[in-house]
Amino acid sequence: MTDPTPDRTSAPTLIGRSSSHFTRVARIFAAELGVAYAFQVVPDLRSVDAADYAGNPALRLPILRTGATTWFGALNICRELARRAPAQRRLVWPEHLTDALTANAQELAVQAMATEVALIMSQLAGTPKDDAQLAKPQKSLLNMLTWLDDNIHAAREALPQDRDLSYLEVCTFCLVTHLEFRSVLPTSGYRALTAFCDDFAQRASAQATAYRFDAP
Ligand SMILES: N[C@@H](CCC(=O)N[C@@H](CS)C(=O)NCC(=O)O)C(=O)O
């Protein structure tokens, strides 16, 4: 749906779940940018009715509704929130990452989030953890976390030092804390990622968006 004259004065509605890492990415951006929004919970991730996902044909969340317009996916939503922000902030988006180190870190952070979603959805479907089909995504997730742990420090050093916020850091924080929250795997052994998360967790935006399961 397109809205030729977007109304950026009324508060948008974020459709998602408080237990979702992609939703938390959007919420952290909203908090950092000072953009108010209403929150609408998607009650059941197993629903196959697009209406439960604000019309997102991918049957995924988050979605942002702004008047007659809907935005699918965390990155689109964060960009729209930035357009609505009352003040300009120094934001680092994926397309700003033009060296292999930071660009690969961004790719792997988002891919790890997607792989984790696939593992959680298979768990919801009743697939046992030792099912042969899960061996590759499980190994892939471990490989990506090891890579991110080895490279997060250097990648952060390579980001513009005067940034207020980067999509890479928000995704990485939401990924690692979500792995613990959903008991997908313990993360304390990933020392660099843990140190980064401890640091990022000091932000008011992180503290205001702690994961929790919404009431059914
Ligand atoms: N590309 C989407 C991915 C969103 C996504 O996978 N969200 C998860 C929840 S965190 C979801 O909708 N899972 C439902 C499913 O996999 O069926 C984004 O960046 O927002």
From TrEMBL:
<feature type="domain" description="GST N-terminal">
    <location>
        <begin position="20"/>
        <end position="83"/>
    </location>
</feature>
<dbReference type="InterPro" id="IPR036249">
    <property type="entry name" value="Thioredoxin-like_sf"/>
</dbReference>
<dbReference type="Pfam" id="PF13409">
    <property type="entry name" value="GST_N_2"/>
</dbReference>
<dbReference type="InterPro" id="IPR004045">
    <property type="entry name" value="Glutathione_S-Trfase_N"/>
</dbReference>
<protein>
    <recommendedName>
        <fullName>GST N-terminal domain-containing protein</fullName>
    </recommendedName>
</protein>
